[in-house]
Input
Amino acid sequence: MKISRTSLLFFLIPSLVLVIFFGIYPIVYNVFLSFKDVNLISYIRGTARSVGIANYSDILVNATFWKALTNTAVFTLVSIFLQMVVGFLLALLFDREFPLKGLFQALVMIPWVMPIMVSGSFFRWFLSDNGFLNNFLTALGWIKEPVMWITTERMAIYSLTTVNVWLGIPFNFILLYTGMQQIPGELYESAAIDGAKGWQRVLYITLPVLKPVIITTFVLGCILTFKVFDLVWIVTKGGPGGASHLLSTFSYSLAFDRFQFGKSTAVLVLMQIIVIVFIGFSNRMKWEER
Amino acid sequence: MKKQGGWKWSVLVALVVILIVSPLYFIAIGGFMSTEEIFYKPPYLFPPRPTLAYYREALSTLLPYIKNSFAISFGTLLLTLMVALPAAFVITKFQFLFKNSLSFLFAFVQMLPYTAIIIPLFLMFTKLKLIDSHIGVVLALSVFLAPFAIIILRSYMASVPSGLIEAALIDGASYFTIFTKVFLPLSAPGIASVSILVFLLAWGNFIVPLAFIKQETMRPISIGLYVFIGQYGVEWNKLMAGSMIYTIPPLVVALLAGKAIIAGLTAGALKE
Output
């Protein structure tokens, strides 16, 4: 159907104003700010000087930046891989009829429903040096000394990644499960006639037929995980000593702990570039899939 | 035919589900225990001397924050729907130039990292005097949630028959009348599902109020819980009681409307 230009604008203007002024303008503004020596005072007074590429060159020799970059890569890829494996196994578990199925399905959504401040605070306690996990493992006799899950530079990011796997279970489960429901039963029946059983069904039917859904889940998972900020901020605040920073928390602490908005926006611009490159890459991947 | 599981299968699934939801259980019982009991070795699996004192104290401390959370969440829901519904209407039902670019624009904004928008917005809002105000938080949340809502609404609204709209147009109805009298009522299930998701996401959001609200009396409960995380230590029992109180509204929504949440999430992700 066609619509006149005035009516079209009438319906679109609210969303365009919101998204362009408060979504697109800020990310363009980041590029502008990243070439300036901006802190809160120079910003308000309008006295921020232009510093050329100094913010970028400072960032690129900053060890915490490189740590945050590799952490973001590890955090994103390991989270996604494990989330998809767990989500897939859980979907297989639900892929049949059994009593109380609806209730269990609603309960699986709980990690998604719980506010992040709640789950983050819980894991801050659960993983602390004298927290539940250490006390529990000591009681079982599995460890002698408490393990410093979130208080050593070496371990913190891996502990956070594991927590993030738990957070991502509902999303991955629900997408893969919904995809599985669309696989026609005849496929399994004819495979059964050919003698396929158990894991062969999964390997030769479920996985190949599910491939488009798996790709979608992967792409969305990457975007969502790259965005993660709150979990790390609540549990470790990027510590100890900046060892568990992600790019998101690093940029935030530059801005709000040190008021170095110029450097912070330089990191943001690099993040924006990563997102844009990834979108281009994933569109091509989806396009080739067709 | 679907494979049958029976009760034995239910027990297996129950074990896995209990493992997944156990954090919520430990938060709930943590609110009934003293700090020493919370850190006791070996850890308690049930509160040994349950007391309601911490829940009561947490509730009275958090009440103003909860009010702020409701104000922010309903404000965000209202703005998001006002912005997203008309956009979703024309995008699903009409052809126009740049339609695909527009859809891409919405998808793109939704994919951006929060910090990439929050940090420059903080500077802009400082000049616009929108810091420490719920309006600023609602605006920033809606920037992320309106595109999210549009994407989900599109897949729901595609099922509203175009013939009805064409017939109304021939009868001389204005686009606005068609939108309010024909289109919105027929999209009601989709709107309900999206509203639930938007409310939950606004209720749970952490980074926007963290960045924009420094004034204690304006803070929602997501940041308000920091009152129990002091400079010299954490009041874990009140933090857990408060966390549980904070989780109750979304938990009730999830148990009552789990199907709508699941349908909304998959609609946004899978049916493009």
About this structure: Chain A has 15 helices and no strands. Chain A touches chain B through 96 residues (CB under 8 Å).
